[in-house]
Amino acid sequence: MLLHIVARGRIGRGPEAELVDRYLKRIAWPTKVTELPDKGGKVPSQPDNAMTILLDEKGEQLSSLAFAQKLDAWRNLGKREARFLIGGADGFSEVERASADFLFALGKATWPHLLARALLAEQLWRATSILANHPYHREG
Fold it and tell me: Is residue 138, in this structure, part of any structural domain at all?
């Protein structure tokens, strides 16, 4: 399954970009990042057999293990892509939230989009590591 991050804003070449790249390169699953302008710029249409996940403060908070299980369930349903959308400064509209397959929150705090991208990349690495029985994740 393709793990596709679609994010508003340019990440540039700073430390956040290096961190995102570091985690995405570790993932054995195919990954892709699409950057959109902060304002405007249409989200690429969702391919058939894909999941659209919005990172949103109103979303469900999952443990790393539960997130891994969610990815695994989607993969087992034959989904070919999990598309994670990271909004701009204003987040998502109610229409966008309603059209998503799943709303996912990275905790109760609000994160800048550059850090949200890094946190998501780490959680994707952690989830795929859990599913591969890699010792990276430790339950406390």
Answer: no
CATH code of residue 22: 3.40.1280.10
Residues in Cβ contact with 123 at an 8 Å cutoff, skipping those fewer than 6 apart: 64, 67, 106
CA distance 139 to 50: 30
Domain region containing 23: 2-131
Number of domain units in the chain: 1
The mean pLDDT value for 93-109 works out to 92
Confidence (pLDDT) at 44: 75
Describe the crossing of helices 113-131 and 15-26 by its angle, rounded to 10 degrees: 20
Dihedral of alpha carbons 112, 135, 2, 55, sign: negative
Predicted structure pTM score: 0.91
Helices 113-131 and 64-76: angle between axes, nearest 10 degrees = 70
